[in-house]
Sequence to fold (244 residues):
Amino acid sequence: MVTATAVQRPSTAQSSPDVIAELRQVTKCFAAHPPCLNGVSLQLRQGEFYFLTGVSGSGKSTLLKLLSGQTTPDHGSVHLFGQVVTPDNDRAMAQLRRRLGVIFQDFKLLGDRTVADNVAFTLLVRGTPKPELQQRVHTALKLVGLTAKASAYPDALSGGEQQRVSIARAIVGGPDLLLADEPTGNLDPQTSQQILYLLHRLHQHGLTVLFTTHDRALTQLLPHPILRLHHGQLQQVATPMANP
Ligand SMILES: Nc1ncnc2c1ncn2[C@@H]1O[C@H](COP(=O)(O)OP(=O)(O)OP(=O)(O)O)[C@@H](O)[C@H]1O
Fold:
């Protein structure tokens, strides 16, 4: 049963401890267009799985970029793990990003590195000791069912397999929050469902997930809260009674 209400009235008060990501009255505009996001408030609670929907151009990616500190709000504030997101503060952002995993529609894998090296990349950059790194990569690849492809290169994999590599890369550091930006946008319907169920299984292991999609059918498959962006506003629509 879903009890969390994600779309909140604006608040300046301290958030409850299980809120790990928050937008407070956020407005974001681009050039001469109407505001992309117009006074949007949102609270994501630890351990939940949220769908974020809306037509193309409704601002889904922009909302995720605000949460990950890739862009700044024109008004309002963004909070992650109890801290204000400050994209111009490199040190603070590096700490916050350690607790974030991000998946993209186009996978963004390094074509000249093997699957295992792609998954290991962020751990290498962080200076993770080799035995821990190898153990983490092994565990992440096992979770996504790709142990047998560890030595393959991305162009030898199907689209669904490439997205599973990018999921392994996103979870290898043990993030608290996974931002999935249209992760099934380049995949056929059957593979899209497989990716959705994989992320759902990771959620059942404790991961908080924000999953954007414009595919309404996908949001009907699992009984998670559905948030919808429409004309710059965020709404929470009824949660379906799905049978996974
Ligand atoms: N850097 C930018 N400069 C100018 N306009 C931008 C920029 N980023 C986004 N936009 C505009 O903001 C609006 C929302 O874009 P966004 O990518 O967030 O939508 P989306 O819902 O993720 O779309 P899609 O489903 O097609 O990926 C669009 O009109 C887009 O053109």
